[in-house]
């Protein structure tokens, strides 16, 4: 079992000081389930709150108990993320960070941000926890003969995460290169400047802007041996599954025995459950940071790993204060210690 607390007696580890209130900010059943698991681990009751929508879709929140002088933790699962600038638009996550801080947020606990630099959008402390110890533990305990597995990055952009998993598990790594270009392209995020012309009327005749050479994707290749082995594709988010399906087909063609997909956040939008069920993927493993109970009913291949333990421990340490230990440093150290053991 994973535990991020330092060496103390079990009774002492579960102590949570008074004055702690937990609220679930969403009436979604999966969000409530995660909130209740966290509350149970902390040994507290869920705060009394009503969150509902009026007929005109206006959201109403009614706090039904006193929170004066207490530490209030609001637990919210999300279903959409955006951290990059689209063309010349705004960076939405920066806007949300500013709004949250302005509303009075004093500390943020989150799990595997898509880009760790998002922490810089907040002017408050941010604890960006990692789900990798739980996913590593799942690989060891639930994938038969995992020692014969290979960790796969479905694109060069995922290679760093795949390398981390491979080093923790003492396994080989494979990288798929040459996949179809996705939405994260130069044309989408506005990096296609300078214009694709050698000169322009507004530019001084003596100056020439170098013409941008268009990208051309090479044929799909797999760097690494996957023949006769279990392939474990790792990423932080699985939403539109097209790239995962293409990767699975490529791995099957290269002789992979079984194919697993491991990700922290399972958005699984649109027809993702049906496509996964009909694909060469044997199992998709995600955490419960985002509700996906309906998708699990549609696709038995989807499995869930509970990460309420590390969230509850982070809340406990923040609430108990510096008289115990530094929250961020000890959580990070404990997570790295578990990964080292794995």
TrEMBL record:
Superkingdom in the source lineage: Eukaryota
Pfam annotation, one family: Pribosyl_synth
SUPFAM superfamilies per the UniProt record, alphabetical: PRTase-like (SSF53271)
A biological process term (GO) from this entry: 5-phosphoribose 1-diphosphate biosynthetic process
GO cellular component, one term: cytoplasm
CDD domains documented for this protein: PRTases_typeI
Residue stretches making up the Ribose-phosphate pyrophosphokinase N-terminal domain: 28-80
Coiled-coil ranges per UniProt: none
Annotated keywords: Acetylation, Nucleotide biosynthesis, Phosphoprotein
Similarity-based family: Belongs to the ribose-phosphate pyrophosphokinase family.
Biological function: Seems to play a negative regulatory role in 5-phosphoribose 1-diphosphate synthesis.
UniProt-listed PANTHER family: PHOSPHORIBOSYL PYROPHOSPHATE SYNTHASE-ASSOCIATED PROTEIN 2 (PTHR10210:SF29), RIBOSE-PHOSPHATE DIPHOSPHOKINASE FAMILY MEMBER (PTHR10210)
Subunit comment: Binds to PRPS1 and PRPS2.
Annotated protein name in UniProt: Phosphoribosyl pyrophosphate synthase-associated protein 2
Lineage, opening ranks: Eukaryota, Metazoa, Chordata, Craniata, Vertebrata
Gene: PRPSAP2
